[in-house]
Design goal:
Strand content of chain B: under 5%
Number of strands of chain B: 0
Largest sheet of chain A: none
Number of domains of chain B: 2
Largest sheet of chain B: none
Oligomer: heterodimer
Largest interface: A-B, 102 and 112 residues
Shape of chain B: globular
Number of domains of chain A: 2
Chain lengths: 191, 180
């Protein structure tokens, strides 16, 4: 049955998906090819949409793939299944770290993994920034000077990226308000 | 409290494009400054756990925060909150894709939010880096793990496990300080 296949596939993804987002997406592609005949083009479109819709990219992809494969129930099955392993592991770990947080081994484990977190976020910064400013869809292309639009980077997107970082990071502005303003600028400029 | 947890994560899910990592500065502000549920140091450890374990980072963060605040029920409502907007947005798009995909206004909003998400991730590199890097050893470890993941494309699980083992070994020897 298609639902049990979806549930099993997405549970596996939840267990094996280290590194979040994009790593999980390649796992999704591998494991659904066993039971759907979704073209790689359809999958690429789904991933593109998942990256520009609100919410975690992996959850968006799971919801969409589940929907395409087996309708609304399919999307529920995929999304819930990908979350279940996290749920079990995290609640166990949360309990254990609370209990043993003063042990040398747990302190050492945290000291070892904390710097890796920085490395992981740093590499996510690169994978997110490059496509956002590479200029595939240029903001304000309709009326900005042509010379500006021929540059290899989308200067408007780059400016939005830098302004967001400064407003939230340096000037401690409310991130929700910053996001609403940036979204409005994008909507006004259009692509 | 349960409603509060739900609303925090609902907002987080609804406003972040670009996924879990872009949520970090928003979550940090909500947890440390607004709600005062965790200190900045606790938050960095929560982020380290949620990134180091498999699964969707946003779901991991929701589960962890929910569990610490209100046990099993807390993690359930937090996770439900963070995935609900995804669910609604994707089902909407899957049904009305053509109308949405061709509107320059909507495409413009999405492009701007993607660029903004990259900016938020830059903030989280700074916020987490400032707390996680406590000396020359951890600075070297952060740089090494970045190079391994971003340049040499080494599996994240391998990098996490390697540094976890190094950390435990050193921790047992030195008696548990904050730097490795």
């Amino acid at each position: 049955m298609i639902y049990s296949k979806l549930i099993w596939a997405f549970m596996k993804i939840g267990i094996l998906g280290f590194g979040g987002g994009l790593a999980i997406i390649s796992l999704i592609r591998d494991s659904i090819s066993e039971f759907t005949d979704m073209s790689s083009e359809t999958f690429a479109n789904i991933v593109a949409i998942a990256q520009v819709t609100p919410g975690p990219v992996a959850i968006n992809t799971a919801t969409y793939v589940g929907f395409e494969t087996a309708g609304i129930l399919g999307s529920v099955a995929a999304t819930v299944s990908v979350a279940i392993p996290s749920f079990i592991m995290i609640t166990l770990i949360a309990r254990m770290t609370e209990r043993y947080k003063n042990s040398r081994a747990v302190k050492g484990a945290f000291a070892g993994v904390r710097p890796v977190t920085v490395g992981m976020i740093g590499s996510a910064l690169i994978t997110l920034t490059l496509p956002a400013v590479a200029g595939a869809s240029r903001l304000g292309a309709g009326f900005l000077p042509e010379a500006l639009c021929k540059l290899p980077v989308d200067v408007v997107s780059l400016a939005i990226c830098i302004m967001t970082a400064l407003l939230v990071g340096k000037y401690k502005k409310n991130p929700f308000i910053v996001l609403i303003i940036m979204g409005a600028i994008g909507g006004l400029l259009g692509v | 409290m349960l409603l509060e947890i739900f609303l925090v994560f609902l907002k987080l899910g609804a406003f972040t494009i670009g996924g879990g990592v872009a949520m970090i500065p928003i979550l940090q502000k909500a947890m440390v400054e607004d709600k005062k549920w965790f200190t900045e140091d606790e938050m960095v450890d929560i982020i380290a756990i949620c990134q180091g374990l498999p699964g969707v980072i946003a779901v991991n963060m929701a589960t962890y925060v929910g569990f610490r605040k209100r046990g099993f029920l807390g993690s359930l409502v937090a996770t439900f909150g963070v995935i609900l907007p995804s669910f609604a947005a994707i089902l909407l798009i899957a049904n009305f894709l053509t109308a949405i995909g061709s509107s320059p206004v909507i495409l413009g909003i999405m492009a701007a939010l993607r660029a903004a998400a990259a900016g938020l991730v830059a903030v989280s590199v700074w916020q987490v880096g400032r707390k996680a890097v406590k000396g020359p050893m951890s600075a070297a470890a952060a740089l090494a793990s970045f190079v391994l993941i971003a340049v040499f494309d080494v599996n994240v699980a391998v990098v996490v496990l390697a540094f976890l083992v190094i950390g435990v070994v050193i921790g047992l020897k030195k008696g548990g300080s904050d730097d490795i």
